[in-house]
Amino acid sequence: MKTKRLTQALERVEAWPAHAQDELAEIASEIDNGLHNGSYEPTPAELAGIDRGLRDAEAGRFATDAKVETAFDKFRGA
User: Fold this and answer.
1) In the chain, which end has fewer C-beta atoms inside a 10 angstrom radius, N or C?
2) CA 25 to CA 30: how far, in whole Å?
3) Nearest residue to 11 (alpha-carbon basis) of 2, 50, 74
4) pLDDT score, position 12
């Protein structure tokens, strides 16, 4: 059984280049494995990104709540 949205998406995917189709197939495999195994194993690239984020957080490289609110106020025209 396929949902209407999935059917429509798969029709569009057929026109994608091979590398994009392969990337989608890998993502679908990860989702499928997660549904069956109940656990997710991040890729080495994902683990590296997590490590970078943790290092940046420890170094205080993220905006403070006050700076984020100031930026939002600017965009809201406040």
Assistant:
1) N
2) 9
3) 2
4) 95
Residues 6+ apart with CB under 8 A from 10: 2
Residues of the chain with pLDDT under 70: 78
Q: What is the dihedral of CA 41, 45, 48, 49, to 10 degrees?
A: -100
Instruction: Please give the model's pTM, rounded to 2 decimal places.
Output: 0.46
Domain spans of the chain, in order of start: 4-76
Query: DSSP letter string over 24-41?
Result: HHHHHHHHHHHHHHS---
Structural contact between residues 4 and 11, judged by C-beta atoms closer than 8 angstroms? no
